[in-house]
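Treating backbone geometry as a discrete language has practical consequences that deserve illustration. Part of our work consisted of pairing the sequence of a single chain with a tokenised description of its backbone. We regard such an encoding as a compact summary of how the chain folds. The amino acid sequence and the backbone structure tokens for this protein are reproduced below.
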Amino acid sequence: MYKTIMLTLDRSGLAEQAIPHAVALAKSFGARLEVVSVVPLPGSEATAVTGADVDWELEVATYKEYLAGVMARIADEGVPATQEIRRGNIAEEIIRHVDEAGVDLIVMSTHGRSGVGRWVYGSIADRVLRYAPVPVLLVRAAE
């Protein structure tokens, strides 16, 4: 049923709570994982929460280091996986990658935030859920 499962990660422990779900599904279906992280554009909703613009080169280096560890954990589980670091509007880039990579299912966590953080990160999950052309599994993450 599922051949390519996208797992979205943002370097947070909350997002990582989706990893076991994605790995279990990949094992069950003999699927590969497409691990995707999106660096938001300066001035976007996500950077508005932190109040800082993003240094693209530094973020890419940080994400590469982070994803190397995640990819090693996934490989230890015997699941084939590739990774992609994108830049742009987070929800739009996740949805765009679905078509480009032939994704059959998206696995991502909600962030369980409150206030402004809830609005921003909740809206990302909400937009992906509403506009993705494939099923979306949302994992409710808890701090």
